[in-house]
Write a structure and sequence with these properties.
The complex is a heterodimer of chains A (118) and B (111). Chain A contains no helices and 11 strands. With 118 residues, chain A is mainly beta. In chain A, strands 2, 4, 5, 6, 9, 10 and 11 form a 7-stranded mixed beta sheet that branches. A 4-stranded antiparallel beta sheet of chain A has the order 1-3-8-7, with no helix packed on it. In chain B, the strands form 2 sheets. In chain B, strands 2, 4, 5, 9, 10 and 11 form a 6-stranded mixed beta sheet that branches. In chain B, strands 1-3-8-7-6 form a 5-stranded antiparallel beta sheet, with no helix packed on it. Classes of the chains: A mainly beta (118), B mainly beta (111).
Chain lengths: 118, 111
């Protein structure tokens, strides 16, 4: 099946620093990737939709200047959390849709990145 | 926008019994309904999905039913095993093709 990787798997940083998270589709091309945030014991909340070659679209309440998204190739999207603060600590998960596959609805999830801001 | 509600929030079953999780959605244009299983600290894994032109789908011990008129869909797990213990999420696509997730169901299968 389709494989999505994420890096790093966990990161601890100081308040005020920026953190970059990478999401890669390993064996398929993805024109669309999604970024989710998941707090403990809660559901996945969509933050933004990342479109290859164009600007990301953000969900209501998500600050685009704080969560920078770059989708420069068909296999890579990055999320940068700028000036991170303790309230940004969360589990960040990306997903990707196979552009060429028979089912363009199916989203394949990365393993997630645990961000802890001290 | 799409609103997905999921019940129950927790479900305890004896090994071998069946488990049923129910979801409702609000957007009549939704046409794709996946179910994900998530173990603690891990990625959500797709276990089964159904599209709006189908009423029921089965894969071994797992089945999903969809009632488009009533806008609800359900996950059925038969002959539950301890390794079925996890959090299960239903989801539905909204009119933009984005997934909206239910709140999740913590399933505990006791031996």
């Amino acid at each position: 099946g389709a494989v999505v990787s994420q890096h790093p798997s966990r990161v601890i940083c100081k308040s005020g620093t920026s953190v970059k998270i990478e999401c890669r589709s390993l064996d398929f091309q993805a024109t669309t990737m999604f970024w989710y945030r998941q707090f403990p014991k809660q559901s996945l909340m969509l933050m933004a939709t990342s479109n290859e070659g164009s600007k990301a679209t953000y969900e209501q309440g998500v600050e685009k200047d704080k969560f920078l998204i770059n989708h420069a190739s068909l296999t890579l999207s990055t999320l940068t959390v700028t000036s991170a603060h303790p309230e940004d600590s969360s589990f960040y998960i990306c997903s990707a849709r196979d552009s060429a596959g028979g089912s363009t609805d199916t989203q394949y999830f990365g393993p997630g990145t645990r961000l802890t801001v001290l | 926008g799409e609103n997905v509600e999921q019940h129950p929030s927790t479900l305890s079953v004896q090994e071998g019994d069946s488990a049923v999780i129910k979801c409702t959605y609000s957007d009549s244009a939704s046409n794709y309904f996946p179910w994900y299983k998530q173990e603690l600290g891990k990625r959500p894994q797709l276990i089964i999905d159904i599209r709006s032109n189908v009423g029921e789908k089965k894969d071994q011990r797992i089945a999903v039913t969809l009632n488009k008129t009533a806008k609800h869909f359900s996950l059925h797990i038969t002959e539950t095993q301890p390794e079925d213990s996890a959090v299960y999420f239903c989801a539905a696509t909204d009119s933009w093709g984005k997934l909206q997730f239910g709140a999740g169901t913590q399933v505990v299968v006791t031996p």
